[in-house]
């Protein structure tokens, strides 16, 4: 059995480690490229969302390389994900590929483990559990490095330093096969990040990214959004980290849980039932970002995304009532790099102007309070 | 007091219940007029561009009612049958209407969740009655009456056919009142039978369906919709599939279509897809795959958006019907 699985950001690396630990033969599809997108789009229904098309492209490329089993995630949640695999199976079989489709439902942690027990020829529950646990740990390490890179990128003096180190850090983590090596690779990478030369006295804008998870996570699909923002001098943060999300589902992250509950409460006046309409969470995260002092929010989603269209329809109101600028980025196979960059630049300018004005206003009140003389400052906000 | 109900979304499923409940409590029930181009235009103005067509039309209906009623009834049906739930856009419709339409009268939004077996949603209506100031006993009586009329309606849908029973109750969403539609949906013996797939709020709305059922009837065809099956049949069929159909509309469409194909009840299937409908994009793959397996029953997805012209639809229908006739 040669299995293949579609890409999803850093998850690809952790999945590789899980299957290696289970001694399961696998094929990693080539990185997402223009060809992947083309293949996916050609064989998908027109109105389906981008993640479907791209994962289909991944599957085709992997099957071409000789995979005989396709493993993919599914969920009976609040979006079309639950219908992905039956539809992809029909499409691929009609293209003439002979393979087995295995859909792993992640709604319930125990069932999830049972699914993985099918791999690697009868390994014990303990072995399967350990392999998964190591995968989660690796995911956490990868994401902490990504987070650090997002923090340092706007501060770097020479453009590209962070990306270069992040790439080598990912490679180092990919090679780690024991807990000790993993911890070591994390330490080494973090200290390399520390050594990056930084420009002094910079105070980057802070922007929170909310929206659809696949589009947030996969840099080859969102036109490397995080790096773009960093290069524009923006410290981007993400509302979604897979490792954190898993810990929260297993009730091991009290802070994450508290934050999640707060976001739900914030969203309540605008939209309810976040278990059934995930769009509500993006609204809650937007308001939470405002309270945490972020300068702006970017809502990322694929064209025709079901849950996020709901949040988009209420974002105008949320943005006005909480005075937080929101940029909606809707991506599909026709989007291009330059158009996205232009919009991000315009958004940065807007945030900078807003920040300058509010600092100036605050300065004015300080001046009044301490009775100092200062140059005239613009008062309008 | 006048309680307004928009002629959209779940109206086509639950109106007899709602009407009987509110009239028994002594309220006037106002229903918006069948959709027209203006309804759609108003709805488009109020909504974000990326939301699906039925929601745009439904917003248009709410706008129409905003000035003419004391209360608007926009229930939140989280789930309609055990083990399934509603499309997120239907669940959040109340919030969308509140967030995008100005000057709305107070909204009645009971939360009905039938995910668990044995939960009938009556409690939500009981509390709704209480909040309107009715007495406990009269609410209970109103609920009993409402359940009876809903039950009658369900039976009628299967026995008399949806068009006939909807027209009898004034629930049809056709502005022209469906003149040519005698016999549609009753499975009268004619040469060709076309199965028309789609959600009730699309099929029975003349703007969303572009009078599809009427056009087919005018061609002398017998048509049938998934309302001809009882939910139990659909559920049994859906349970045999390897994947879970967790949305009710998805379950009805896929289950119903598979039943048609299994019973060889139709000569062709037309799937009416409103633009931007999330599930339909994938469900059409599931249905077309099965149709090809079943000795190649012709299948045509028909996507409708706010710009679809009549002639485009007519041409495609004619071509499809020619193919059906040739095959016969």
Shape of chain A: globular
- Please work out how many helical segments of chain A DSSP would assign: 15
- Tell how many strands the DSSP assignment of chain A holds: 8
Percent strand of chain A: 5-15%
Helix amount of chain A: 55-70%
Characteristic terms for this protein:
heterodimer, A: about 375 residues, alpha/beta, 4-stranded parallel β-sheet, disordered C terminus, B: about 325 residues, 10 strands, about 15% strand, globular
Question: Would you give an account of this structure?
Answer:
The complex is a heterodimer of chains A (381) and B (328). With 381 residues, chain A is an alpha/beta fold. In chain A, 56% of the residues lie in helices and 11% in strands. In chain A, the strands form two sheets. Chain A has a four-stranded parallel sheet, sandwiched between helices. In chain A, strands 6-5-7-8 form a four-stranded parallel sheet, with helices on both faces. In chain A, helix 4 links the parallel strand 3 and strand 4. Chain A starts with a strand and ends in an 11-residue tail after the last helix. A four-stranded parallel sheet of chain B has the order 2-1-3-5, with helices on both faces. Chain B has a four-stranded parallel sheet with strand order 8-7-9-10, sandwiched between helices. Chain B is of the alpha/beta class. Chain B contains 15 helices and ten strands. The longest helix of chain B has 25 residues. In chain B, 53% of the residues are buried. In chain B, helix 14 links the parallel strand 9 and strand 10. The interface between A and B is large, with 42 and 40 residues.
């Amino acid at each position: 059995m040669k299995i293949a699985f579609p890409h999803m950001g850093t998850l690809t690396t952790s999945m590789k480690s899980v299957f290696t630990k289970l001694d399961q033969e696998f094929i990693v599809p080539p990185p997402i490229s223009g060809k992947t997108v083309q293949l996916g789009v050609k064989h998908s229904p027109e109105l389906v969302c981008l993640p479907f098309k791209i994962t289909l492209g991944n599957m085709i490329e992997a099957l071409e390389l000789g995979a005989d089993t396709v493993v993919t995630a599914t969920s009976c949640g609040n979006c079309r994900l639950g219908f992905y695999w039956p539809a992809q199976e029909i499409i691929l079989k009609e293209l003439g590929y002979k393979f087995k489709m295995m859909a792993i439902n992640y709604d319930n942690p125990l069932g999830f483990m049972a699914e993985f027990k099918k791999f690697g020829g009868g390994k014990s529950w303990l072995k399967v559990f350990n392999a998964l646990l190591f995968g989660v740990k690796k995911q956490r390490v990868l994401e902490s490095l990504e987070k650090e890179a997002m923090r340092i990128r706007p501060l770097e003096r020479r453009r590209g330093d962070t990306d270069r180190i992040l790439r080598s850090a990912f490679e180092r983590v990919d090679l780690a096969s024991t807990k000790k090596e993993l911890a070591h690779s994390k330490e080494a990478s973090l200290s390399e990040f520390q050594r990056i030369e930084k420009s002094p006295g910079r105070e980057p804008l802070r922007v929170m990214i909310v929206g659809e998870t696949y589009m947030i996570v996969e840099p080859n699909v969102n036109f490397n959004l995080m790096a773009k923002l960093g290069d524009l001098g923006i410290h981007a943060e993400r509302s979604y980290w897979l490792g954190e999300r898993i810990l929260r589902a297993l009730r091991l992250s009290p802070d994450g849980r508290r934050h999640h509950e707060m976001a739900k409460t914030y969203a309540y006046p605008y939209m309810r039932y976040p278990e059934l309409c995930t769009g509500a969470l993006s609204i809650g995260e937007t308001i939470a970002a405002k309270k945490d002092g972020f300068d702006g929010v970017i809502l990322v989603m694929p064209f025709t995304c079901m849950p996020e269209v709901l949040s988009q329809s209420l974002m105008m109101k949320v943005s006005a009532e909480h005075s937080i600028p929101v940029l909606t980025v809707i991506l599909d196979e026709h989007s291009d790099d330059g158009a996205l960059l232009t919009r991000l630049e315009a958004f940065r300018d807007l945030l900078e102007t807003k920040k300058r004005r509010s600092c100036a206003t605050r300065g004015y009140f300080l001046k009044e309070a301490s009775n100092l003389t200062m140059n005239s400052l613009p008062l309008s906000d | 007091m006048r309680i307004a109900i928009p002629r959209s979304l779940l109206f086509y499923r639950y109106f007899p219940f709602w009407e009987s409940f509110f009239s028994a409590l002594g309220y006037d029930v106002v229903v918006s007029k069948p959709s027209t181009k203006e309804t759609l235009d108003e709805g488009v103005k109020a909504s974000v561009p990326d939301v699906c067509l039925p929601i745009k039309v439904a917003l248009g209906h709410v706008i129409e009612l905003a000035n003419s009623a004391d209360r608007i009834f926009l229930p939140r049906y989280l789930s309609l049958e055990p083990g399934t739930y509603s499309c997120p856009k239907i669940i959040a419709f109340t919030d969308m209407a509140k967030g995008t339409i100005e000057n709305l009268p107070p909204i009645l939004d009971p939360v009905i969740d039938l995910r668990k077996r044995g939960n009938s949603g009556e409690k939500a209506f009981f509390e709704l009655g209480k909040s309107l100031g009715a007495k406990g006993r009269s609410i209970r009586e109103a609920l009993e009456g409402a359940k009876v009329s809903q039950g009658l309606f369900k039976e009628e849908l299967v026995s008399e056919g949806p068009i006939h029973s909807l027209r009898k109750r004034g629930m049809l969403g056709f502005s022209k009142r469906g003149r040519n539609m005698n016999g549609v949906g009753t499975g009268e013996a004619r040469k060709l039978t076309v199965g028309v797939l789609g959600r009730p709020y699309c099929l029975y709305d003349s703007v969303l369906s572009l009078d599809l059922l009427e056009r087919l009837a005018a061609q002398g065809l017998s048509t049938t919709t998934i309302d001809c099956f009882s939910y139990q049949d659909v559920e049994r069929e859906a349970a045999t599939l390897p994947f879970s159909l967790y949305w009710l509309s998805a379950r009805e469409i896929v289950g119903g279509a598979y039943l048609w194909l299994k019973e060889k009840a139709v000569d062709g299937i037309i799937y009416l897809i409103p633009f931007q409908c999330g599930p339909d994009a994938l469900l059409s793959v599931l249905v077309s795959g099965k149709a090809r397996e079943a000795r190649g029953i012709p299948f045509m997805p028909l996507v409708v958006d706010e710009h679809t012209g009549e002639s485009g639809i007519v041409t495609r229908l004619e071509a499809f019907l020619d193919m059906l006739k040739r095959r016969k």
